[in-house]
Design a protein that fits this description.
With 460 residues, the chain is an alpha/beta fold. Helix content is 68%, strand content 7%. Among the domains are: 94 residues, Alpha Horseshoe (Serine Threonine Protein Phosphatase 5, Tetratricopeptide repeat); 129 residues, Trna Endonuclease, Chain: A, domain 1, CATH 3.40.1350.10.
C-alpha cells in the first residue's frame, strides 16, 4: 500500500471523525436546550440553571443557553440575574425560534422597568412596535414612558395610536383622558374617561383618573367615590388613599385626611418609594395645620432619612429646628386658639403699646384691631385704629398677600397695618411695603418680643 493512499485514508478518517463530532453536537445541543426548557416548565429551576451554566462554561457565546439561563432565573425569582443574562443575549444574538424576539423584548422591557431603567425599556417598546405594529399595548407602554419623561406631545401621539389600533383599549382611553386634562383640553378629557369606563366598568385605572379629574375640578364628593372604587386594585390602592387624603385636606377635613394618609403609609412595602414619601409629606402638612409640630417634624425626619432632596423637607426641618430649644416660638407656633389669642394680645399690649379692640381667628393665625394706649398724649386727636395680622403659616409672605391686605384695609377704612410672622417675607413683599403704611415684623423681632414680655405669666 502506497504512502499516498495511507495519507488519503488518514485524512478521510479525520474528516469523518470531525463530521461525526459535529453531527453529534448538532443533535445533542438542541436536546440539551430542550431539556432546560422542560426543566423550567416543570419547576425544576435548580437543575435547569445548573445545565444552562454547564453549556455556557463550554461556550460563553452560547446565546440560547444564556436565554434559557435567564428564563430559569426568572422562574426561580432571581430577576436581577435574569436581566444580566438577557442583556448579554440582547447584545450578541440573532433571534430565532429558540429565542423568539417579541417574547424576549417584552420580558426584558419589564425587567428594565423593575430595575428603574425606563430609557432602556422605552427602546424595547419602540422596537416591539416595529415588530408588532398591530399590538396596541406596545403603543400604550411607550406612551406611559414618554409621559414619565414629561414629553406630553409624544405621549399623546402614542396614546392616540394605541386607541386607534385597538378602540377598546380602556386603559389607553383613561390615560389619554388624564393627559388631555393636564393639557387643559377638558371636553376631550372627560369624553375619553367616560369611554374608558363604558368599555370596562371595572377599570380601576379609569376610576383613579376620573377621581383626579374631579379633584382638580374641586368636586371632592364624587372624586372620593371614584377613588373608593380604585381601591379595589392593589396597584392603585396606595395612590388612591393618598388622593383621598388630598381631597379631605383641600376640603379642610384634616382629621379625615390624616386617616387616609396613615392608611397609605401602612400599605407601603418600600419606605423610599415616591408614593410613601408623598403620603408622609402630606401627613406632616396635616399635623402642621393642626399645630402638632412635633409629629410633623417626625414625618419630615423620616422622609429626610430616605431622600434628603425631597421637596422642601430640608427647609421645613431647618425652619422648625429651634422649636426644641426655644419655648417661646414653639408656644407661638403650636398654641391652640385661646392660648394663641392670649399670646397675640400680650404682644400687642406690651410689645407694641397698643390696646386691643377686637380679635378674630384667620386661616393663617389671627387678626386684631388695636389703637394707641396713651389717652393723654392723643387727647385732641382721634385714635386711628390699625389692623394687626399675626401669621404662623410656614411659607414666606408674598407681595400678593400684602396687596390683598391693603385692599381689606381700605374696605375697613384702616390706614395703618402691621404684619407679624414666624416665617419671613419675600423680597418683593419687602419692596412693596417700603412705600405703604404697612409695618413688617419678621421672625427675629417676633422672638425678641416674645422673650421680653411676660406672655406665659399673663396666660397663667
Amino acid at each position: 500500500m502506497s504512502s499516498m493512499f495511507i495519507a488519503f485514508i488518514l485524512i478521510l478518517g479525520t474528516g469523518v471523525a470531525f463530521l461525526l463530532i459535529f453531527l453529534v453536537k448538532s443533535f445533542l445541543l438542541p436536546q440539551k436546550i430542550s431539556n432546560i426548557d422542560r426543566l423550567i416548565s416543570s419547576g425544576k429551576t435548580t437543575q435547569a440553571i445548573r445545565l444552562a451554566k454547564g453549556l455556557i462554561a463550554k461556550n460563553p457565546r452560547d446565546s440560547e443557553a444564556r436565554y434559557m439561563l435567564g428564563r430559569a432565573y426568572l422562574s426561580d425569582g432571581k430577576s436581577e440575574l435574569a436581566l444580566m443574562e438577557f442583556k448579554a443575549v440582547n447584545s450578541t444574538t440573532i433571534f430565532s425560534d429558540k429565542i423568539p424576539e417579541a417574547d424576549f423584548r417584552k420580558t426584558i422591557a419589564q425587567l428594565y422597568l423593575k430595575y428603574n431603567q425606563p430609557e432602556e425599556a422605552l427602546k424595547e417598546y419602540l422596537l416591539l412596535i416595529k415588530k408588532e405594529p398591530f399590538d396596541a399595548q406596545h403603543y400604550y407602554n411607550a406612551a406611559q414612558l414618554f409621559e414619565a419623561r414629561e414629553n406630553s406631545e409624544q405621549a399623546l401621539a402614542y396614546y392616540r395610536k394605541a386607541v386607534e389600533t385597538d378602540p377598546k383599549h380602556a386603559s389607553a382611553h383613561a390615560s389619554l383622558g388624564l393627559l388631555l386634562f393636564r393639557n387643559k383640553q377638558m371636553t376631550d378629557a372627560k369624553k375619553e374617561i367616560a369611554l374608558a369606563l363604558k368599555l370596562d366598568p371595572k377599570n380601576t385605572a379609569a376610576y383613579f383618573y376620573q377621581g383626579k379629574l374631579l379633584r382638580e375640578s374641586h368636586d371632592y364628593a364624587n372624586a372620593l367615590a371614584s377613588f373608593e372604587k380604585a381601591l379595589r386594585d392593589p396597584e392603585f390602592k396606595q395612590k388612591a388613599l393618598i388622593e383621598r387624603g388630598c381631597c379631605y385636606m383641600e376640603a379642610n377635613s384634616v382629621e379625615k385626611a390624616i386617616i387616609e394618609f396613615d392608611r397609605a403609609i401602612k400599605l407601603s412595602t418600600d419606605d423610599s418609594s415616591n408614593d410613601t414619601l408623598h403620603a408622609r409629606y402630606f401627613l406632616a402638612s396635616c399635623f402642621e395645620k393642626q399645630r402638632d409640630i412635633d409629629q410633623a417634624i417626625g414625618q419630615w425626619e423620616k422622609i429626610f432619612s430616605k431622600r434628603r432632596g425631597f421637596r422642601d423637607v430640608g427647609e421645613k426641618l431647618s425652619q422648625y429646628q429651634e422649636l426644641r430649644s426655644n419655648d417661646h416660638i414653639k408656644e407661638y407656633l403650636t398654641a391652640g386658639k385661646e392660648d394663641f389669642f392670649t399670646i397675640c394680645k400680650a404682644i400687642t399690649t406690651n410689645g407694641l403699646d397698643l390696646s386691643v379692640r377686637d380679635i378674630k381667628e384667620t386661616k393663617y393665625g389671627c387678626a386684631l384691631i388695636a389703637v394707641e394706649n396713651d389717652a393723654e398724649k392723643w387727647r385732641n386727636v382721634r385714635k386711628m385704629p390699625r389692623l394687626i395680622l399675626f401669621y404662623r403659616d410656614p411659607n414666606l409672605i408674598e407681595d400678593s398677600f400684602l396687596r390683598s391686605l391693603q385692599e381689606d384695609m381700605k374696605k375697613q377704612a384702616l390706614i395703618r397695618g402691621i404684619v407679624i410672622t414666624s416665617s419671613g417675607f419675600t423680597r418683593t413683599a419687602l419692596e412693596f411695603a417700603e412705600s405703604r403704611p404697612i409695618e413688617l415684623i419678621g421672625r427675629d423681632k417676633l422672638e425678641n418680643m416674645l422673650s421680653s414680655i411676660d406672655v406665659f405669666g399673663q396666660k397663667s
